[in-house]
């Protein structure tokens, strides 16, 4: 990674093309300003954490990047090309998969069925084309391979209903589904919320595995130790703006919180 600066106090300039980029996004809800000219860059093979207090604009930013909301102003680029997502399916079709905090898994279905939910594969030949029979065996085989590729060892049986799994295992299913189909970007919204220490560590390992596979990850989290453990860069939101973009190497957790609360300002914000 090459960084250049005009002076030591200026914002570093990344010379690579971002996989996903937002420029000066604005989103209002009546008199409420959700985003006030926010920019963001996600580069290949990195974990970008987004942190900020409640109401800072984190969720609105993610929704704009993933098609759940349409920004009033600004531009979004994917691999350097402008994109205009009008619904979440548009972002998914472009290779951006999002795992929301509520997971959106189907408890009654098994692990394999959840991985292929909405993307079910039919059997080959007349059984699939005419009789529309699902390729259950093939999907289970692919599900096992995807879980193995991510290093998920706690889910040996893909025929188990998701309702029988622990919170961490359900999160693993949701992340595996995103990894299986998120060819460009995976967005994780509070993936360790309400999980115990052991299960949280398993999810953090999943995030590292995604990065090792070359899939860039956007991580939204309130858990600062988790952020500093896995993030390559940290985007800090404050009052609808980007307050700063820092790294775990350049700033401490205490400094990150100070920027997030407004107690400290640095010169690489969007203001």
Would you mind describing this structure in some detail?
The chain is an alpha/beta fold and 271 residues long. The protein has a domain at 16-105 and 167-261: Rossmann fold (3-Layer(aba) Sandwich), CATH 3.40.50.300. The protein has nine helices and twelve strands. It has helices at residues 58-65, 88-93, 111-115, 126-129, 136-149, 167-181, 197-212, 224-230, 253-261; strands at residues 3-4, 13-14, 20-29, 32-42, 47-51, 73-78, 81-83, 96-99, 185-189, 217-220, 233-238, 241-246. Strands 8-9-10-5-11-12 form a six-stranded mixed sheet, sandwiched between helices. The chain has a four-stranded antiparallel sheet with strand order 4-3-6-7, with helices on one face. A hairpin with a 2-residue loop joins strand 6 (73-78) and strand 7 (81-83). Helix 6 (167-181) runs parallel beside helix 7 (197-212). The two termini are 26 Å apart. Residues 1-12 have low confidence and may be disordered. Pfam families: ABC_tran. This is Sugar ABC transporter ATP-binding protein. Keywords: ATP-binding, Nucleotide-binding.
The CATH class of the domain at 16-105 and 167-261 is identified as Alpha Beta
Output the strand order for the largest sheet. Answer: 8-9-10-5-11-12
* Strand percentage: 15-25%
Largest sheet: 6 strands, mixed
Order of helices and strands: EEEEEHEEHEHHHHEHEHEEH
Fourth-level CATH superfamily of the domain at 16-105 and 167-261: P-loop containing nucleotide triphosphate hydrolases
CATH fold group of the domain at 16-105 and 167-261: Rossmann fold
Shape: globular
Q: N-to-C terminal Cα separation, in Å?
A: 26 Å
Number of strands: 12
Structural class: alpha/beta
Give the overall average pLDDT. Answer: 88
- Looking at the overall shape, the CATH architecture of the domain at 16-105 and 167-261 is 3-Layer(aba) Sandwich
Helix-residue proportion: 25-40%
Catalogue the unreliable spans: 1-12
GO molecular function: ATP binding; ATP hydrolysis activity
Protein name: Sugar ABC transporter ATP-binding protein
Domain ABC transporter: 20-264
Organism: Leifsonia tongyongensis
């Amino acid at each position: 990674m090459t960084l250049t600066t005009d002076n030591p106090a200026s914002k570093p300039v990344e010379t690579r093309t971002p996989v996903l980029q937002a420029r000066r996004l604005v989103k209002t809800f009546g008199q409420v300003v959700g985003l006030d000219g926010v920019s963001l860059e996600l580069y290949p093979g990195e974990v970008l954490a987004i942190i900020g207090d409640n109401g800072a604009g984190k969720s609105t930013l993610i929704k704009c990047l993933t098609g759940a909301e349409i920004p009033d102003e600004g531009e979004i680029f994917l691999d350097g090309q402008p994109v205009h997502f009008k619904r979440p399916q548009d972002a998914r079709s472009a290779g951006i998969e999002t795992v929301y905090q509520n997971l959106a898994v189907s408890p009654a279905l098994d692990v394999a069925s959840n991985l292929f939910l909405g993307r079910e594969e039919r059997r080959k030949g007349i059984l699939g084309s005419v009789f529309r029979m699902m390729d259950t065996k093939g999907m289970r085989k692919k599900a096992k391979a995807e879980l193995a590729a991510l290093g998920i060892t706690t889910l040996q049986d893909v025929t188990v209903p998701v309702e029988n799994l622990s919170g961490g295992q359900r999160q693993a299913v949701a992340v595996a589904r995103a990894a299986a189909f998120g060819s460009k970007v995976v967005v994780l919204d509070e993936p360790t919320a309400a999980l115990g220490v052991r299960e949280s560590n398993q999810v953090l390992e999943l995030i590292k595995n995604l990065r090792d596979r070359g899939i860039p990850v956007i991580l939204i989290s309130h858990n600062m130790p988790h952020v500093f453990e896995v993030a390559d860069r940290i985007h800090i939101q404050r009052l609808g703006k980007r307050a700063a973009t820092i790294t775990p190497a350049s700033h401490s957790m205490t400094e990150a919180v100070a920027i997030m609360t407004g107690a400290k300002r640095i010169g690489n914000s969007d203001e």
